[in-house]
UniProtKB/TrEMBL annotation:
<dbReference type="GO" id="GO:0071949">
    <property type="term" value="F:FAD binding"/>
</dbReference>
<dbReference type="GO" id="GO:0016491">
    <property type="term" value="F:oxidoreductase activity"/>
</dbReference>
<feature type="domain" description="FAD-binding">
    <location>
        <begin position="3"/>
        <end position="342"/>
    </location>
</feature>
<dbReference type="InterPro" id="IPR002938">
    <property type="entry name" value="FAD-bd"/>
</dbReference>
<dbReference type="Pfam" id="PF01494">
    <property type="entry name" value="FAD_binding_3"/>
</dbReference>
<dbReference type="InterPro" id="IPR050631">
    <property type="entry name" value="PheA/TfdB_FAD_monoxygenase"/>
</dbReference>
<keyword id="KW-0560">Oxidoreductase</keyword>
<protein>
    <submittedName>
        <fullName>FAD-dependent oxidoreductase</fullName>
    </submittedName>
</protein>
<dbReference type="InterPro" id="IPR036188">
    <property type="entry name" value="FAD/NAD-bd_sf"/>
</dbReference>
Length: 403
């Protein structure tokens, strides 16, 4: 197979970039190694910045018809005291809320919407296993399909294959580890009809948990110290669920659905970024270029922003062949500042809140001064809402529409 652009990975960055390049008339193929998009612990917070992109693409009406829940006021319990983290209703944007939507619905929607572009092909059950090279230049990928191996030649290969990117590894790109003090246990609890609660995060001495209202069930993220998964399992599932029920009594009836450790998935948290995003013929974006902490739920939205910036900068150039490495590096130059600033804010939260929450012992937690100030001064909740909901320098669609 020969295409203008081969995108490895069908996550938010890969599917959005595939859609944008297909819309621009660029011959592009997206490779997704799984047979479907159903992954239980993929991020599912769609922020106003991404909703704005969907609106600019003319997709927002159909998108918001998909089942989702909306969040405007982010509140939490910190050592028994209620705090308000952000109020998205204060944003002067068209869609001032976070949409909680399973990521598989988001990705399926992009795939279905992209079927109208003859130049876009999405290949499921197709896993990139190596790079094809022409001297120093990456000229495509070797991929494994259910019926054998295929060589896909491409003027440009884009790595969107996540924080454990095989493409990044094969290209020999160096990763700068920033570190995260936590991992996450991810599980569902049943939800009774009419049951609701506006608390987003709960922090007690030695424990931290985030809950998402998914309509017919609660999605739970129980935060544990980095590398302590075996120790938590050694205490037993009952001990974990007892901790959860004490922190969030509303979940207690639904915890009966967590029957074994098979129902509890471990999400290993990493915060890192590439020093260099490119090789000749190759570009990394999304988690392949910068893994984000789950703090703020910004990972999906950073990946979408990367895809929009990539299409803005490269779509027209791709029409006539592969951009030079300097032209490819324009994506890093555009996106590096938002990535660094977002990761810096996540590290501040890790150091001042997560570390304190996960510290062993039963000492009473004190609400940090900044958090207390934001709770007391409503207009500050608009500033935190902007940082969470729109991020640093949000992107807008400027790539051509030749559909």
């Amino acid at each position: 197979m020969k295409v203008r652009c081969c995108i490895v990975g069908g996550g938010p960055a890969g599917m959005m970039l595939g859609y944008l390049l297909g819309r621009a008339g660029i011959e592009v193929v997206v490779l997704e190694k799984h047979a479907d998009f159903f992954r239980d612990f993929r991020g599912d917070t769609v922020h106003p910045s991404t909703l704005q992109v969907m609106d600019e693409l003319g997709l927002i009406d159909g998108f918001l018809k998909l089942p989702h829940q909306r969040l405007q006021k982010m509140q939490g319990m910190f050592g028994g005291e209620t705090v308000r983290i952000a109020d998205l209703s204060r944003l002067h944007v068209k869609y001032p809320f976070i949409a909680f939507m399973p990521q598989w619905d988001f990705l399926n929607f992009l795939r279905e919407s992209g079927k109208r572009f003859a130049s876009l092909k999405v290949m499921m059950s197709t896993e990139a296993i190596d790079l094809i090279r022409d001297g120093e230049r990456v000229s495509g990928v070797k991929a494994k399909m259910p019926d054998g191996i295929i060589d896909i030649e491409a003027d440009l290969t884009v790595a969107c294959d996540g924080r454990h990117s095989l493409v990044r590894e094969r290209a020999g790109l160096e990763v700068e580890e920033i570190g995260a003090p936590m991992d996450v246990l991810w599980f569902r609890a049943g939800k009774q009809e009419g049951e609701s609660e506006n608390l987003f995060a709960r922090i007690d001495p030695g424990k931290m948990m985030v809950t998402f209202d998914r309509g017919d069930y609660w999605q739970c993220a129980f935060v544990i110290p980095k590398g302590q998964h075996d120790a938590v399992r050694a205490r037993g599932l009952t001990a974990l669920l007892d901790d959860v029920a004490r922190m969030a009594p509303i979940l207690k009836p639904g915890l009966s659905e967590v029957k074994s450790w098979d129902d509890v998935k471990l999400l290993t948290v990493a915060v890192n970024r590439l020093k260099r995003w490119t090789r000749p013929g190759l570009l990394c974006i999304g988690d392949a270029a910068h893994a984000m902490s789950p703090i703020g739920g910004v990972g999906v939205n950073l990946a979408v922003q990367d895809a929009v910036a990539t299409a803005n900068l490269l779509a027209s150039r791709l029409a006539s062949g592969c951009p030079s490495e300097d032209e490819l590096d324009a994506v890093r130059r555009r996106r590096a500042f938002p990535v660094r600033m977002t990761q810096r804010m996540q590290v501040v939260v890790q150091n001042n809140i997560v570390n304190a929450a996960l510290k062993p012992g039963n000492e009473p937690l004190k609400v940090p001064f900044v958090m207390r100030l934001v709770t007391a001064v409503p207009w500050l909740q608009g500033i935190t809402a902007r940082l969470v909901g729109l991020g640093v320098r949000p992107e807008h669609v400027q790539s051509p529409d030749r559909a």
